[in-house]
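#struct-pred
JK: can someone run the complex with 3-methyl-2-oxobutanoic acid? inputs below
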Amino acid sequence: MKKITVPEILKMKAEGRKIPVLTAYDFQTARVLDEAGIPVLLVGDSCGMVEAGYETTLPVTLDEMTYHCRAVARGRASALVVADMPFASYQVSRKEAKRNACRLIKEGGAEAVKLEGGTKAADTIRAITDMDVPVMGHIGLTPQSIHRMGGYRVQGKSKTDAEALMDDARSIEEAGAFAIVLEGIPASLAKEITASLSIPTIGIGAGPDCDGQVLVVNDMLGLMAGNRVPRFVKKYADLNRIISLAVGEFIKDVNEGRFPSKEHTY
Ligand code: KIV
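RT: done, structure tokens with the ligand placed:
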């Protein structure tokens, strides 16, 4: 399959082709998703919540992101790998942001980085894109701002907030980002932002009119502890149930002496 690059992602928007994106955090998942034809793999800092069991994404470190990213990069053949910059890896100074973005490219094997924030993050985005490191922006419900937002709430509902988000999207595009994640905003606003930008928007909880859609892979495969997922998630499989049935059978086989049988014995 053809290698997906940043210019190819821009071309997809220009040609009106949709851009499906899924998160991945490990080698095996990256390989399966890549072989299934997903064009973009996002090594999201959501790994902190869905893989490590943290309450928020805030504790995730750059070392952890680098580790996950390296595993994903080894598993993909054609997908574009985008790595999230975790909290505190780009907010403190532009110098640190540049160094940390380089680390995700150099050690993690990512081909682009993603960071959260609108107009306030524009200078940082410019500093990173000036090093020829492609940046994906992320506005709306930005999980690293959980304490300011007071919870995972839909953003941009009032006219003032919607206008601020439109400004955020424009500043990020001007700063050189190649795409923007729109998370947790009204579908009508996402449609307006998408129409006003030349770079693609990737929606999550932002309605059907974005140029692409992203989901956390554990959510869409039904691999979440407790099985509670946000309303915007479509569950395409129930892997928790499949795993639970398989494990139950294994326990029974061992207890009743059916495993290992002759075929599994040297
Ligand atoms: O961390 C993540 O997985 C993300 C996506 C949900 C957009 O940022």
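RT: quick notes.
Residues 142 and 251 are 42 Å apart (CA to CA).
Strands lie at 19-23, 40-43, 80-84, 112-114, 135-140, 179-183, 201-204, 212-215.
JK: thanks, will look after standup
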